[in-house]
Amino acid sequence: MTFEDWARTELPGLLRFATALCGSRHLAEEISQDMLINAHRRWDHIQQTDRPDAYLRRMLVNEFLSWRRKWSRFVPKPEIWIAETNADHAETVTARDELISQLGRLPRRQRAVLALRYYGGLNDAEIAETLRCSTSTVRAHASRALATLRVELTATTSTTDQRRTAQTGANHAY
Known about the structure:
globular, 77% helix, RNA_pol_sigma70_r4_t2, transcription regulation, transcription, mainly alpha, 2 domains, 9 helices
């Protein structure tokens, strides 16, 4: 398979993965572009590996983890675009935006583990191989990330519920 054939078929999925990993479509495009330049140079080697998709995914994750060296002045904001948004489901959209915001505050390795696990569908061994660490490190990153999200989202939810209760009480006073 030529590089161009691979790019036509597999690039959209890899770009979606990069967007979930980065939390920003623009940063995902930048990282993917840099990864593609490197992949094109090494395509003969990559094509001969057992799993070129895993190799390229690892390249993408490594590029994401080292983005600070290249874009020291760029601070990404989580802005994953949701394809289907209905105005009638404002609470769902608000909750999703809050989750995306909280994901953006996680350390890069924790975010990478969650993106590889829940978006990429990889198991702990595959994530460990991609990040070049042990499976226990992957589980530790996932555990810490999920605990942080639970605490942050619980605090946000209780604040929102308190505001909603206060507004409901104020509306009933009239």
